[in-house]
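Homework help board

Subject: predicted structure for assignment chain

Our instructor gave us this sequence and asked us to write out the predicted structure in token form, then describe one feature. I got the tokens but I'm not sure how to describe them. Can anyone check?
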Amino acid sequence: MSLAIPRSKFAISFSDAAVFLAFLYFGGPAAIVMAAIETLASCYYLRKQGVPMSRITVLSNISINTISISVTYLFWLAFLEHLLMTGAAPGETQHLLSTLGAIAVSQFAVASFLAAVFRAISDGSGLWQTWIKNCFSSSLTQMVGAGLAGIIYKVVNYGDVVTGVIAFVTLSLAYLSYRQSIGKVGEAILQVETAEQEKAEAERERRREAEKHAEQLAATLEKEEQANEALRKSEKDLQHAALYDSLTDLPNRKHFSDMLGRMINEYRDDPSATFFVLFLDIRKFKNINDSLGHTIGDKVLTIAAKRFVRMLNPSDMVARIGGDEF
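My token output:
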């Protein structure tokens, strides 16, 4: 009769009743041996039910339970036995309740403290926080185990069947109700975790979609920028082609005409702003084209254009009007 506590690394086992019965019938040493056997059986049962539990954890649980029962037994011999003997006679209900209650509280105090120390060392958390969060709820183990042990002891020894049946039914209903409550809590937690996982997955999907759209937008903007750059270059090339000669890269007839028109207008406004125009052509250039070909003729024009440029001052301009005319 073990129940795993939802969202916790601990489980509640009501089979401590066997330990308390061993204490009542056979004394402390038998209870210590029974505690080790009961803890080992509970651990392997919980592992079979799917509760994660390593060998070290199993050994730790056995050690904790055995030590707690041993300390409880020593505490009983030193203090509790003498205190309880002054009250009701052994076997009576008052004495039985006092004995089981004192043993259960003592065993819970020692076991929960040792479990909290072990968990705090392994997790690196605070001792008090670990005890409140994980160990306090395990008090039901000792209390219900003590109640079951008392019922069985009374029924076996005194034949108080009616009282025993009533108490047993009451505790059974409480156990089933608690088990059902834990089941509902587990289902609710599972539903919440499933909803959170679905929400997280939806958020991740939306984030992936947003990143995908962002990448597509970045690629589109990059293409548009490349297209704009190509357009600007094309416009620049078009403007250059409209004003410069393609062979010599000198200003063409239109560019020269525009420049000459501006200078004439400046001269009209200010006659002192004089300028000069020198017209040149290459002698017998037609013979070069006819005898050596147009390719050589183009090279001659290119070389002549470079020589003209080297002869100019920074304020001068040379333009190709057409053919071999500059």
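Reply (TA_rk): Your tokens look well-formed. For the description, you could write something like this. The chain has a mean pLDDT of 79. That's the kind of observation they're looking for.
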